[in-house]
Amino acid sequence: MSKPTFLNQLAQEVLKSNSNTLSELTIVLPNKRAKVFLLEELKLLVLNNVFAPEIISIEEFIQEVSGIRSVDSVELLFEFYEVYLSITDKDKQESFENFANWAKTLLQDFNEIDRYLLEPNKILKYLEDIKEIEHWSVDVDKRTSLIEKHMLFWKKLPEYYHSLYQYLVNKGIGYQGLIYREAVENLNHFSENNNDKHFVFAGFNALNQAEEKIIQHLLALDLAKVYWDIDETLLNDTFHDAGYFQRKFKSEWIYYKTHPYEWISNDFKTEKNIHVIATSKAIGQAKIVGSIVEKQLEKGNLQNMALVLGEESLLLPMLYSLPANVDALNITMGFSSKNNPAQLLLTKLFKLHTNALTRNPSAYVMYYKDVLDVLTHPLVEPYVNANELVSIINKSNYSFITHKKLVELYSKENQLFSLLFQKWDNDSVTVLEKIAQILLKIKSNLDYETEEEKITNAFVYSIFKVINKMISYFSKHPSINDLKTLQAIYKQVIDVAEVSFEGEPLSGLQIMGVLESRVLDFETVIITSVNEGKFPAGKSTNSFIPYDVKLQYGLPTYKEKDAIYTYHFYHLLQRATNVYLIYNSDSQGFDAGEKSRFITQLEIEKQPNHNLTFQYYNPDVANIAHQLITIPKTESVMTRLHEIATKGFSPSSLTTYIRNPIQFYFQRVLHISETDEVEENIAVNTLGTIIHGTLEELYKPTIGRLLTKEDIKMCISKIDDEVLNQFKEVYKEGEIKKGRNLLAFEVAKRNVLNFLKTELEALENGDEIQIISLETTYERVLTDARLPFPVLIKGNVDRIELRNRRIRIVDYKTGKVDKNNVILKDWNGLSNDIKNDKIIQVLAYAFMYEEQTKGQEMEAGIISFKNLKSGFLPFQFKQDKDVVATISGEIMENYLEQIVILLQKILNKDVPFEEKIN
């Protein structure tokens, strides 16, 4: 880097001022990351072997001063609950889940009160008084129990604070604010015991009251030095938020009345190329970053280049967008455990077992989707070999499956399967131990030879650590023992858990979040998501303390938060030469964005040496949204078509070709059928199959003889049983006793009943009905000189009857069909329009049965269960005012002419299958 970095200056200063006492020096930095870079700078400057100074973060330093160990947020919540139970009457105690809802916010407020060294009684009493004022209009005697409970909560805040504080101090643990307050209390003792040491505080910006007091105390005793990193342009501008804190320290600290304010640099005004790039969505930003990195690689290496993600969720798309030849990479931020494959498996397990326990703890009924989600998970599927079980669940249509049934269906001995599906109970520690066993078993299945499995192992291990930590929490706190609470706590822990990346911390491209960039300087900086609400972050008021109270007592508000983000932003630009600011320009939609005020500020306060450019990138949109598929007919395709012609073209396959030739190609030529899946809600085609099957079984005993009214009445009496039998036959183990399926069951019964009523009415009106066949397959060869070979037309006819000495071919339809759907006015183009599909089908049935009519008149049509009032809808040919319903030789001849034209297209080698969009 052409300009010396802040850490390089610091290393030089440290060696110059402490060359003989380096090992007695402690350097305190804002974060741990900067330590590696500072040590590297020292290494480059030191000529001889020396002991390095102690380099620690501010959090580590404060813990050292206070002598108290920091605890994480979840452990703190558990400890607070123990305190809460000890000071609350048993009849007023809340469950842990309800307690956690308000305790998290309260702990944040306690933390702020302590970090800023405020008098807790004063501020917490203030909150109580505010609530009293809010309810001033309600007489004390008329207050409801809800108001009383609400007021009691605010009255007890001081007691909650002091009890928790004392409890934690006695145990030697604490939250950040408590540790800061104790550090201030212990400051004299610490400085007396460490008067032979020297401390250097470097690279800080915003400090809380406790930090200010500690640093000023050490400065006054001449035990410390402070090196700030602020540019004079930002410091001297009284309205600029980047210098907000530093101006305050410079003017208010007594130390700076007699000492110089170090260091004030003058780098921001130097020449910089700032490229502001607007693009659409997160993926657009990732793609642009990839192209910038690629161009940088062409110029040289990626040393002194940083990619700062304003939004950490961009990490994965960003990694996928980087060029393949990026050889060195260091990711400071961790990968969120939310998307960790092992975590996703545990989420599915929690869902499966908690739902099973809620439904019926003894029968342990599991939902099929939950079971399949676990069985098909990539960490499970290769090791349990449950393909057969998955197939059985799908084919048998199990919507819900008991634990006993699941074990019966899976006959193999498999430890992982047993661990995954063993019953859970409400004991949290037992459940966690079972989960730990599952993770250990998965770990033992992994192979360490491949890079992929090494990464998987890292993911599994990170979740295993989380589970172990939770076992420790719940073992120490037996009063919190509930599966619902366990799940809620697990979600909270996972939200903050991360998997660390391995990388080269000092070489190549550095990828980091905003806070990780503190103290570091880079020549080329790319910042993404420079949008309002992302960079800077938006206003968030997760606090019980109102804004005006915070303002009065000096607690940080969104104003201070904005000032912190402003400093980080300008610090990234301070020593950089090339800067790329990328933001989401979409102003509408789910991920809408607005350009950050920082970009506007750079425009308005443009420095003379800043070369500011604006670019707008829009994604390339193809002119054709979807390229229609065209498949030529090869020799193998023609062979397959010949096979179909020999085995038989069904009427539905002919209409499929008319609807979409590609669909015909996939289904009939390639035999690609839909995969077996559990039909959770009865589909229309399944309902149709059930009604067809019911009518077939009811009418079977009457085939070949005249129907009587008694026959129909007998059929009506059997409807319930037969519909149930058909449901079991078709829907297998599917649930039909509740929900949509129960409604479908009732609809099926009603449709059959209504149909039988029309039949009874016809008989009462004197119709003579004799059923010839039900659900019978018929076939007939179509031979024509224009076809390359004879074609068999073959299909299943729902019903053929002799009604009033006339052959009637009936096709049942569960959907709605109108009279117009079976009326034809012109034969030309019959096979070009899918609207004619009903006509093509019923005439195909007539063609197949024609030879067996023995000279009797024949009609063919449809009975629509959604249009039963229209009765039988016969095919009719209408020309002018003449309507022909009887299928004569002339009608059949005209029909076959059109079918031959259709078959010519299907069987012509030179006519490819072309996709249609209807």
Structure characterization notes:
- The chain is α/β, with parallel strands linked by helices.
- It has 36 helices and 29 strands.
- The strands form 9 sheets. It has a 7-stranded parallel β-sheet. Strands 21-22-23-25-26 form a 5-stranded mixed β-sheet, with helices on both faces. A 4-stranded parallel β-sheet has the order 2-1-5-6.
- A hairpin with a 2-residue loop joins strand 22 (791-803) and strand 23.
- Helix 3 (58-66) crosses helix 9 and helix 30 (651-659) runs antiparallel to helix 35 (837-849).
- The mean pLDDT is 89.
Highlighted features:
single chain; 918 residues; alpha/beta; 7-stranded parallel sheet; 5-stranded mixed sheet; 36 helices; 15% strand; elongated
Q: Helix share of residues? A: 40-55%
Q: Tally of extended strands?
A: 29
Main pleated sheet: 7 strands, parallel
**Cα-based radius of gyration, to the nearest Å:** 39 Å
Major sheet: order of its strands?
11-16-10-17-18-9-19
N- and C-termini, Cα separation: 62 Å
Helix and strand content put the structural class at: alpha/beta
Shape: elongated
Return residue spans where pLDDT drops below 50 for at least 5 consecutive residues: none
- What percent strand? 5-15%
Number of helices: 36
Q: What would the average pLDDT be, to the nearest integer?
A: 89
Short description:
The protein has 918 residues and is an alpha/beta fold.
